[in-house]
Design goal:
It is a single chain. The chain is mainly alpha-helical. It is built from 12 helices and no strands.
C-alpha cells in the first residue's frame, strides 16, 4: 500500500512538472510574440502567435494573443502590398523607358508623375520630395492630392510653396491655380488655428504670407481668376465659407441665408447644398 502511494505521488509530481513546463513555455512564447509586435516585426509576430495557438488552443490569454496577432497580420499584409506595389511600379517604369525614347515630343508629364507617385509612400510626409518635380508633373500630383497633408503641415506647405515658386517663377495658369488652391487651404487651416499662427508669425512673414487674412483674400482672387471652370467651384466654396466666418455668423442658428458674391456664383452654376462642403 505504501509503495502504491509513493508511486502515485511520484507520478503526480511528474505530471505537475510537465504541466508547469508547458505553461511556462506558452507564457514565454506569448512574451516573444508581444516583443516581436513591439519591435514592428509583424511577420515574425504572426508566426509566433500562430504556433502558440496551435500548440495551446486553450491558452489562458488567448484573446490578448489574438489581439496582437490580428493587428500584426493586417500590418504585415500592408508591408506585403507595399513590397508588391514597389516591384510592380519598378517593372512599369522599366517598360516605359521605351515610351520615353519613342515619344520624346509628346507630353509625358502625367505618366512621369504617375510613376513618381507610385514610388512614394501612401501619403508623403515631407514636401522636400517634390523639390525637383517639374511644374507639368506637379499639376498631376496636386490634382491627385498625393502630397503631405495640408491640414497637418500648413506652415511647411507654405514654406515649400514659397521656395518652389521662387525657383519656378513662370507657371501656366492651370498649374498656378492649383498651387494657389493648395496655399489657400494652408492659410485656411492657420486662420482656424490662431495659437499656431501666432507662434509661427515670424516664419510666415519670412515666406510672404502675413497678414493671413489679406494673403488669403489675394490668393483667393488670383486663384479664382486663373482656375479652369472645373476648379473654380472649390475657390468659390472657400470664399463663401471665409465670408461667412468673417461676418460673425459662425455658430449661430439662423434661417436667413448669408449673402455672398461666391454664393451667387455657385447658384448660377447649379449648387447642390448637400454637396456644398468646404474644401479641405
Amino acid at each position: 500500500m505504501r509503495n502504491k502511494a509513493i508511486k502515485t505521488l511520484v507520478l503526480l509530481f511528474f505530471v505537475l512538472n510537465y504541466v508547469f513546463a508547458f505553461a511556462l513555455d506558452s507564457n514565454e512564447m506569448f512574451e516573444n510574440g508581444k516583443r516581436a509586435f513591439d519591435l514592428s516585426r509583424f511577420k515574425e509576430c504572426v508566426e509566433i502567435f500562430d504556433r502558440l495557438l496551435y500548440i495551446w488552443p486553450d491558452f489562458e490569454d488567448k484573446p490578448e494573443a489574438l489581439y496582437y496577432r490580428s493587428i500584426a497580420a493586417i500590418r504585415d499584409t500592408e508591408d506585403k502590398v507595399n513590397a508588391y506595389k514597389a516591384e510592380l511600379v519598378d517593372k512599369i517604369a522599366s517598360d516605359c523607358e521605351t515610351v520615353f525614347l519613342e515619344l520624346p515630343e509628346n507630353d509625358l508629364s502625367e505618366l512621369k508623375a504617375a510613376i513618381a507617385i507610385g514610388k512614394m509612400e501612401s501619403e508623403p510626409l515631407d514636401w522636400s520630395q517634390f523639390d525637383k518635380i517639374k511644374p507639368a508633373e506637379l499639376k498631376h500630383v496636386l490634382l491627385r492630392r498625393h502630397h503631405p497633408s495640408v491640414q497637418r503641415f500648413p506652415v511647411q506647405t507654405l514654406i515649400w510653396l514659397n521656395g518652389y515658386k521662387n525657383k519656378n517663377s513662370v507657371l501656366t495658369p492651370d498649374v498656378e491655380a492649383l498651387t494657389e488652391l493648395l496655399k489657400l487651404k494652408a492659410l485656411w487651416q492657420l486662420l482656424l488655428s490662431p495659437l499656431n499662427a501666432k507662434a509661427e508669425e515670424e516664419t510666415l512673414k519670412q515666406n510672404n504670407v502675413w497678414p493671413l487674412a489679406k494673403t488669403f483674400e489675394q490668393t483667393l482672387d488670383n486663384g479664382f481668376k486663373k482656375a479652369l471652370p472645373s476648379l473654380k467651384r472649390e475657390f468659390a466654396l472657400m470664399g463663401y465659407h471665409y465670408d461667412y466666418l468673417r461676418s460673425n455668423e459662425f455658430g449661430k442658428e439662423t434661417k436667413k441665408e448669408f449673402s455672398s458674391i461666391w454664393l451667387k456664383y455657385l447658384k448660377e452654376r447649379g449648387l447642390n447644398l448637400k454637396e456644398a462642403v468646404c474644401p479641405y
